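Incident log, structure service

09:12 report received: a user says their structure output differs between two submissions of the same chain.
09:20 pulled the input from the user's history:
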Amino acid sequence: MTRVLVVNAGSSSLKLSVVAPDGTTAQEANIHCPDAIPPGAVAGFVRGAGAVDAVGHRVVHGGGDFDGPARITPDVVRRIAALAPLAPLHQGRALQAVDAVREALSGVPAVACFDTAFHRTLPPEASTYALPERWRTKWGLRRFGFHGLSHAYAARRGAELAGLDPAAARIVTCHLGAGASLAAVRGGTSVDTTMGFTPAEGLVMATRPGDVDPGMLVWLLRQGVSADELDEALEHGSGLAALAGHGGDMRAIRDAAEHGDETAALARRVYAYRIGTRTAAMAAALRGLDAVVFTGGVGEHDAPIRAAACAGLEFLGVALDGGANDAAHADADVSAPGAPVHTVVVTAREDLEVARQTRELLARDG
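09:34 re-ran on a clean worker, output below:
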């Protein structure tokens, strides 16, 4: 299998890239589409990209059905669609992309690669909610976790940069972007993560609050806040956007904080505090720590956030080299000399993970 077209359908964009076996990107495009994928956009990209041997689609939610990649069939499409209520911003868009690519590349094998699949290895003590058994059985309530494609690649690449054995390394991966989550990865296997049944749990994000008191949400409902209003606020009106404005854009919030905006400065402290304390929790799940890996738009490009998130983790052996941290915007080890735990910055490459999983599945299927 040589060239794989990787399709990453986000909530407002469509990223397309052709990945060669050596990991180089032969062609790529980022199409802004806040409403629907523009007619002809995929076909136009495909015409200019040349021949491809397979297509790999990133799909956010695989629910309890998928513990690995799956060849796209009508049944797989139906099951992806059934999960739309759990990831409304992404599932429908992924299926739009599946249809658009099928029209442009009829007959080319296509594979769905799920963000949740990486976390299907969570042990029961990490994946089980302490909720009534009848609810858990009826609705399949459990912690799924997300960003799995990013976490899988970041852990593998982070171990390589740190000179660790990936089969034994204990790594906390920090995917920090508009959505954000941590994962505890032992020997390449996820054993805990911060997101749960939906992507709303865990860290403070651009427009999501992360962990909040469920009793407070019930209280708000009883005050007259509607379920739809609550859902809208938790998905689009909370997080950094609620604390500092600027639509939750960390670059704008950082600039505001540097110019003396106290609300922006507080938002960044809240954001970094949650990362640091949850990183310590992930280390506990790993029973030790060999590396912390930062990836994603904020993780790769915001050195002060990396420093603030690590500032309270000295007791775990985490220490940064200030100069290396300030200079790093790509794959780099930014650990202080002699630090027992490596701190690494890794460029997010979900496309490479999707291409890898696609090739491996089709090779197994023959």
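09:41 both user submissions now match this output. Likely a transient worker issue. Closing.
09:42 reviewer note: The first helix runs from residue 41 to 49. The chain has a mean pLDDT of 94.
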